[in-house]
Design brief:
The chain is α/β, with parallel strands linked by helices. The protein is built from eight helices and 18 strands. The protein folds into two domains: 20-261, Zn peptidases (Aminopeptidase), CATH 3.40.630; 268-350, OB fold (Dihydrolipoamide Acetyltransferase, E2P).
Protein backbone atom coordinates (compact mmCIF):
# COMPACT_ATOMS: atom_id res chain seq x y z
CA UNK A 1 0.00 0.00 0.00
CA UNK A 2 1.58 3.28 -1.10
CA UNK A 3 0.32 6.81 -0.73
CA UNK A 4 -2.63 8.48 0.97
CA UNK A 5 -6.25 7.55 1.48
CA UNK A 6 -8.46 10.24 3.00
CA UNK A 7 -11.83 9.03 4.18
CA UNK A 8 -14.78 11.39 4.34
CA UNK A 9 -14.05 15.04 5.14
CA UNK A 10 -10.41 15.81 5.91
CA UNK A 11 -8.75 18.95 7.13
CA UNK A 12 -5.59 20.23 5.47
CA UNK A 13 -3.56 17.03 5.38
CA UNK A 14 0.04 16.32 6.23
CA UNK A 15 2.02 14.93 3.35
CA UNK A 16 2.44 11.27 4.20
CA UNK A 17 5.47 9.09 3.45
CA UNK A 18 5.06 6.06 1.20
CA UNK A 19 3.45 3.00 2.82
CA UNK A 20 1.35 5.23 5.08
CA UNK A 21 -2.42 5.78 4.98
CA UNK A 22 -4.79 8.24 6.64
CA UNK A 23 -8.37 7.59 7.79
CA UNK A 24 -10.65 10.30 9.11
CA UNK A 25 -14.07 11.89 9.40
CA UNK A 26 -13.55 15.37 10.73
CA UNK A 27 -17.28 16.12 10.83
CA UNK A 28 -17.43 14.75 14.38
CA UNK A 29 -13.88 15.55 15.45
CA UNK A 30 -13.31 17.37 18.74
CA UNK A 31 -10.39 19.75 18.38
CA UNK A 32 -7.22 19.72 20.43
CA UNK A 33 -4.86 22.62 20.90
CA UNK A 34 -1.66 22.49 18.87
CA UNK A 35 0.00 25.86 19.29
CA UNK A 36 -2.30 28.52 17.88
CA UNK A 37 -4.01 26.20 15.39
CA UNK A 38 -6.71 23.90 16.82
CA UNK A 39 -7.11 20.62 14.93
CA UNK A 40 -8.51 17.11 15.24
CA UNK A 41 -6.76 14.55 17.44
CA UNK A 42 -4.27 12.41 15.51
CA UNK A 43 -3.54 8.80 16.48
CA UNK A 44 -0.63 7.11 14.68
CA UNK A 45 0.16 3.39 14.57
CA UNK A 46 3.58 2.31 13.32
CA UNK A 47 4.93 -1.14 12.55
CA UNK A 48 8.13 -2.30 10.91
CA UNK A 49 10.36 0.49 12.18
CA UNK A 50 12.66 -2.53 12.42
CA UNK A 51 12.06 -4.71 9.39
CA UNK A 52 12.41 -8.10 11.10
CA UNK A 53 9.77 -7.44 13.77
CA UNK A 54 6.88 -9.26 12.17
CA UNK A 55 3.86 -8.57 14.38
CA UNK A 56 4.01 -4.80 13.87
CA UNK A 57 4.30 -5.24 10.10
CA UNK A 58 1.33 -7.59 10.05
CA UNK A 59 -0.80 -5.28 12.23
CA UNK A 60 -0.23 -2.36 9.85
CA UNK A 61 -1.00 -4.45 6.76
CA UNK A 62 -4.07 -5.90 8.47
CA UNK A 63 -5.42 -2.47 9.39
CA UNK A 64 -4.74 -0.96 5.97
CA UNK A 65 -6.32 -3.98 4.27
CA UNK A 66 -9.45 -3.75 6.42
CA UNK A 67 -9.87 0.01 6.24
CA UNK A 68 -9.00 0.46 2.58
CA UNK A 69 -11.81 -1.94 1.69
CA UNK A 70 -14.31 -0.83 4.33
CA UNK A 71 -17.49 1.07 3.34
CA UNK A 72 -17.41 4.80 4.02
CA UNK A 73 -20.02 4.30 6.75
CA UNK A 74 -17.25 2.67 8.83
CA UNK A 75 -15.78 6.12 9.36
CA UNK A 76 -19.01 8.03 10.08
CA UNK A 77 -18.57 7.92 13.86
CA UNK A 78 -14.85 8.72 13.94
CA UNK A 79 -13.92 11.63 16.19
CA UNK A 80 -10.28 11.98 15.19
CA UNK A 81 -7.74 10.99 12.59
CA UNK A 82 -5.89 7.70 12.26
CA UNK A 83 -2.55 7.37 10.47
CA UNK A 84 -1.16 3.87 9.90
CA UNK A 85 2.21 3.14 8.34
CA UNK A 86 5.24 0.93 7.84
CA UNK A 87 8.39 2.48 9.22
CA UNK A 88 11.18 0.88 7.23
CA UNK A 89 9.90 -0.69 3.98
CA UNK A 90 13.38 -1.45 2.65
CA UNK A 91 14.35 -3.43 5.78
CA UNK A 92 10.95 -5.15 5.77
CA UNK A 93 11.55 -6.32 2.22
CA UNK A 94 15.00 -7.63 3.19
CA UNK A 95 13.72 -9.22 6.41
CA UNK A 96 16.38 -7.42 8.45
CA UNK A 97 16.30 -5.05 11.42
CA UNK A 98 17.76 -2.22 9.31
CA UNK A 99 19.60 -1.77 6.05
CA UNK A 100 22.93 -2.38 7.81
CA UNK A 101 24.03 -3.37 11.32
CA UNK A 102 25.28 0.18 11.87
CA UNK A 103 21.90 1.77 11.09
CA UNK A 104 18.79 2.01 13.25
CA UNK A 105 15.73 4.00 12.20
CA UNK A 106 14.64 4.14 15.83
CA UNK A 107 17.70 6.18 16.81
CA UNK A 108 17.20 8.79 14.07
CA UNK A 109 14.47 10.88 15.72
CA UNK A 110 16.77 13.30 17.49
CA UNK A 111 15.48 16.76 18.34
CA UNK A 112 17.94 18.66 16.12
CA UNK A 113 16.89 17.75 12.58
CA UNK A 114 19.85 19.67 11.12
CA UNK A 115 22.24 17.13 12.66
CA UNK A 116 20.81 14.58 10.23
CA UNK A 117 20.49 16.86 7.20
CA UNK A 118 24.12 18.03 7.53
CA UNK A 119 25.57 14.53 7.15
CA UNK A 120 27.70 14.10 4.04
CA UNK A 121 25.83 10.92 3.14
CA UNK A 122 22.32 10.14 4.36
CA UNK A 123 21.52 6.49 5.02
CA UNK A 124 18.12 5.15 4.02
CA UNK A 125 17.13 5.27 7.69
CA UNK A 126 18.23 8.92 7.94
CA UNK A 127 16.07 9.88 4.96
CA UNK A 128 13.13 7.82 6.12
CA UNK A 129 13.22 9.54 9.53
CA UNK A 130 13.12 12.93 7.81
CA UNK A 131 10.02 11.78 5.89
CA UNK A 132 8.25 10.54 9.04
CA UNK A 133 9.17 13.37 11.44
CA UNK A 134 6.48 15.86 10.31
CA UNK A 135 3.59 13.51 11.08
CA UNK A 136 5.10 12.52 14.45
CA UNK A 137 5.31 16.20 15.37
CA UNK A 138 1.53 16.41 14.91
CA UNK A 139 0.69 13.06 16.54
CA UNK A 140 -1.25 13.11 19.82
CA UNK A 141 -0.95 9.38 20.57
CA UNK A 142 1.63 7.08 19.00
CA UNK A 143 1.52 3.30 19.20
CA UNK A 144 4.80 1.99 17.80
CA UNK A 145 4.74 -1.82 17.72
CA UNK A 146 8.13 -3.49 18.19
CA UNK A 147 9.62 -6.84 19.18
CA UNK A 148 12.90 -7.92 20.73
CA UNK A 149 15.83 -9.87 19.28
CA UNK A 150 16.02 -12.17 22.32
CA UNK A 151 13.03 -13.91 24.00
CA UNK A 152 10.90 -11.64 26.14
CA UNK A 153 7.61 -11.30 27.92
CA UNK A 154 5.52 -8.56 26.25
CA UNK A 155 6.19 -5.15 27.73
CA UNK A 156 5.58 -1.46 27.16
CA UNK A 157 8.38 1.07 27.28
CA UNK A 158 7.57 4.70 28.13
CA UNK A 159 10.39 7.24 28.07
CA UNK A 160 10.87 10.66 29.66
CA UNK A 161 10.17 11.98 33.11
CA UNK A 162 6.48 12.67 32.50
CA UNK A 163 4.05 9.81 33.14
CA UNK A 164 0.54 11.28 33.08
CA UNK A 165 -3.02 10.00 33.48
CA UNK A 166 -3.13 9.72 29.66
CA UNK A 167 -0.24 7.27 29.74
CA UNK A 168 -2.16 5.24 32.34
CA UNK A 169 -5.29 5.30 30.17
CA UNK A 170 -3.51 4.17 27.02
CA UNK A 171 -1.59 1.49 28.91
CA UNK A 172 -4.89 -0.13 29.91
CA UNK A 173 -5.72 -0.93 26.29
CA UNK A 174 -2.80 -3.39 26.14
CA UNK A 175 -3.23 -5.92 28.96
CA UNK A 176 -1.10 -8.50 27.12
CA UNK A 177 1.91 -6.47 28.30
CA UNK A 178 2.76 -7.67 31.79
CA UNK A 179 5.73 -5.33 32.27
CA UNK A 180 6.11 -1.55 32.22
CA UNK A 181 9.65 -0.42 31.42
CA UNK A 182 10.32 3.24 32.15
CA UNK A 183 13.24 5.11 30.64
CA UNK A 184 13.04 8.47 32.39
CA UNK A 185 16.55 9.59 31.39
CA UNK A 186 16.43 8.41 27.74
CA UNK A 187 19.18 5.87 28.35
CA UNK A 188 18.25 4.03 25.15
CA UNK A 189 19.73 6.99 23.26
CA UNK A 190 22.60 7.62 25.68
CA UNK A 191 20.66 10.43 27.33
CA UNK A 192 19.28 11.93 24.11
CA UNK A 193 15.81 11.77 22.55
CA UNK A 194 16.15 9.42 19.58
CA UNK A 195 13.15 7.10 19.20
CA UNK A 196 9.72 7.63 17.63
CA UNK A 197 7.89 7.55 20.95
CA UNK A 198 10.37 9.91 22.60
CA UNK A 199 10.05 12.34 19.68
CA UNK A 200 6.25 12.34 19.99
CA UNK A 201 6.51 13.00 23.72
CA UNK A 202 8.97 15.84 23.14
CA UNK A 203 6.37 17.43 20.86
CA UNK A 204 3.59 17.17 23.44
CA UNK A 205 2.00 13.83 22.58
CA UNK A 206 1.81 10.42 24.26
CA UNK A 207 4.36 7.95 22.90
CA UNK A 208 3.99 4.21 23.51
CA UNK A 209 6.57 1.63 22.45
CA UNK A 210 4.90 -1.79 22.63
CA UNK A 211 7.35 -4.72 22.62
CA UNK A 212 5.07 -7.67 21.88
CA UNK A 213 7.59 -10.53 22.20
CA UNK A 214 10.46 -11.90 20.13
CA UNK A 215 10.92 -10.54 16.60
CA UNK A 216 9.89 -13.61 14.59
CA UNK A 217 7.22 -14.88 17.03
CA UNK A 218 3.73 -14.35 15.59
CA UNK A 219 1.85 -16.30 18.28
CA UNK A 220 0.47 -13.12 19.89
CA UNK A 221 -0.95 -11.62 16.68
CA UNK A 222 -4.62 -12.24 17.51
CA UNK A 223 -4.19 -10.79 21.00
CA UNK A 224 -2.54 -7.65 19.62
CA UNK A 225 -5.22 -7.25 16.93
CA UNK A 226 -7.86 -7.32 19.64
CA UNK A 227 -5.99 -4.76 21.73
CA UNK A 228 -5.53 -2.44 18.75
CA UNK A 229 -9.22 -2.71 17.91
CA UNK A 230 -10.21 -1.60 21.42
CA UNK A 231 -7.60 1.17 21.34
CA UNK A 232 -9.16 2.56 18.14
CA UNK A 233 -12.70 2.27 19.50
CA UNK A 234 -11.83 4.22 22.66
CA UNK A 235 -9.51 6.84 21.17
CA UNK A 236 -11.05 7.73 17.79
CA UNK A 237 -14.42 5.95 17.93
CA UNK A 238 -13.47 3.75 14.99
CA UNK A 239 -15.11 0.32 14.98
CA UNK A 240 -13.42 -2.26 12.77
CA UNK A 241 -15.64 -4.43 10.54
CA UNK A 242 -17.43 -7.20 12.43
CA UNK A 243 -15.48 -10.45 12.62
CA UNK A 244 -12.07 -8.83 12.12
CA UNK A 245 -10.95 -9.61 15.70
CA UNK A 246 -11.46 -12.32 18.31
CA UNK A 247 -13.32 -10.50 21.06
CA UNK A 248 -12.66 -13.28 23.59
CA UNK A 249 -8.87 -12.93 23.50
CA UNK A 250 -8.47 -10.57 26.48
CA UNK A 251 -10.90 -11.39 29.25
CA UNK A 252 -11.99 -9.09 32.06
CA UNK A 253 -10.29 -11.39 34.56
CA UNK A 254 -7.05 -11.20 32.58
CA UNK A 255 -7.20 -7.39 32.71
CA UNK A 256 -7.76 -7.44 36.48
CA UNK A 257 -4.78 -9.71 37.10
CA UNK A 258 -2.60 -7.48 34.89
CA UNK A 259 -3.54 -4.44 36.97
CA UNK A 260 -2.45 -6.25 40.13
CA UNK A 261 0.60 -8.06 38.77
CA UNK A 262 2.09 -5.46 36.40
CA UNK A 263 5.84 -5.49 37.00
CA UNK A 264 7.65 -2.15 36.75
CA UNK A 265 11.27 -1.53 35.84
CA UNK A 266 13.43 1.54 35.26
CA UNK A 267 16.30 1.62 32.74
CA UNK A 268 19.46 2.80 34.49
CA UNK A 269 22.38 2.69 32.05
CA UNK A 270 23.82 1.12 28.93
CA UNK A 271 26.91 -1.05 28.62
CA UNK A 272 28.73 -0.01 25.44
CA UNK A 273 31.16 -2.08 23.39
CA UNK A 274 34.62 -0.53 23.65
CA UNK A 275 36.48 0.42 20.42
CA UNK A 276 38.57 -2.40 18.94
CA UNK A 277 36.96 -4.97 21.22
CA UNK A 278 34.89 -8.10 20.81
CA UNK A 279 32.30 -9.30 23.32
CA UNK A 280 31.11 -12.63 24.66
CA UNK A 281 28.25 -13.26 27.09
CA UNK A 282 29.19 -15.00 30.34
CA UNK A 283 27.88 -18.50 31.03
CA UNK A 284 27.87 -20.77 34.03
CA UNK A 285 25.88 -23.06 36.29
CA UNK A 286 23.22 -21.97 38.77
CA UNK A 287 22.83 -23.08 42.37
CA UNK A 288 20.51 -25.86 41.20
CA UNK A 289 23.00 -27.04 38.53
CA UNK A 290 21.17 -25.50 35.58
CA UNK A 291 23.45 -24.07 32.92
CA UNK A 292 22.79 -20.54 31.78
CA UNK A 293 24.12 -17.88 29.43
CA UNK A 294 23.80 -14.21 30.29
CA UNK A 295 22.02 -12.09 27.70
CA UNK A 296 19.87 -15.00 26.55
CA UNK A 297 16.58 -13.23 27.32
CA UNK A 298 15.13 -9.91 28.37
CA UNK A 299 14.67 -9.14 32.08
CA UNK A 300 17.27 -11.76 33.00
CA UNK A 301 18.32 -11.16 36.59
CA UNK A 302 21.94 -10.76 37.66
CA UNK A 303 23.66 -9.98 40.95
CA UNK A 304 26.13 -7.29 41.90
CA UNK A 305 29.64 -8.00 40.54
CA UNK A 306 28.44 -11.13 38.74
CA UNK A 307 30.11 -11.42 35.32
CA UNK A 308 27.67 -10.40 32.60
CA UNK A 309 30.16 -10.87 29.80
CA UNK A 310 33.72 -10.34 28.65
CA UNK A 311 35.33 -7.84 26.27
CA UNK A 312 38.52 -8.78 24.43
CA UNK A 313 40.88 -6.33 22.77
CA UNK A 314 42.98 -7.05 19.66
CA UNK A 315 45.68 -8.64 21.82
CA UNK A 316 43.22 -10.98 23.52
CA UNK A 317 43.28 -9.17 26.86
CA UNK A 318 40.07 -9.75 28.80
CA UNK A 319 37.88 -7.21 30.60
CA UNK A 320 35.11 -8.56 32.81
CA UNK A 321 31.79 -6.73 32.36
CA UNK A 322 29.69 -6.51 35.53
CA UNK A 323 27.56 -4.10 37.53
CA UNK A 324 28.07 -2.87 41.10
CA UNK A 325 24.40 -3.50 41.90
CA UNK A 326 21.76 -6.20 41.35
CA UNK A 327 19.69 -5.67 38.24
CA UNK A 328 18.10 -6.99 35.07
CA UNK A 329 19.28 -7.13 31.45
CA UNK A 330 17.07 -5.52 28.80
CA UNK A 331 17.51 -5.39 25.02
CA UNK A 332 20.59 -7.70 24.98
CA UNK A 333 22.18 -7.63 21.53
CA UNK A 334 22.68 -10.56 19.23
CA UNK A 335 26.23 -10.86 17.86
CA UNK A 336 25.53 -9.37 14.42
CA UNK A 337 24.20 -6.16 16.05
CA UNK A 338 27.19 -5.59 18.31
CA UNK A 339 28.82 -2.38 17.09
CA UNK A 340 31.84 -0.65 18.64
CA UNK A 341 30.87 2.36 20.69
CA UNK A 342 27.21 1.34 20.87
CA UNK A 343 25.23 -0.49 23.58
CA UNK A 344 25.49 -4.23 24.05
CA UNK A 345 22.72 -4.26 26.64
CA UNK A 346 20.93 -1.99 29.08
CA UNK A 347 20.75 -2.40 32.85
CA UNK A 348 17.39 -1.99 34.57
CA UNK A 349 16.22 -2.04 38.18
CA UNK A 350 12.89 -3.41 39.36
CA UNK A 351 10.78 -0.71 40.99
CA UNK A 352 7.69 -2.75 41.94
Amino acid sequence: MVGIRICKMATKALRLPTHFARYSNHTNAPFVSQGSSPRAKIVTILGGVHGNELVGVEIVRWLQGLLNNAPFSTFDSMNGELIVGLGNPKAIEAGTRACSSADDLNRCFIVKEDCIRQKNILSYEDQRSLDIRPLLKETDILLDIHATNKPSLPFIRIAGEQFTHRHHEVLKYFPHARILLRDSKHTIGNGEISTTDEFVQYNGGVGICYEVGQAADMSCIDVVKNEVAEFLEKEVNLYLPQGSTDQTTCTTEYRKTREVNLEKFEMIEAINLLPNHKFEWASGTSDINNSFTMGSENFQKFFANQPIGYMFDDMGNETVVSSPFDGYLVFPKVEELMVEGKPLVWIAKKTS
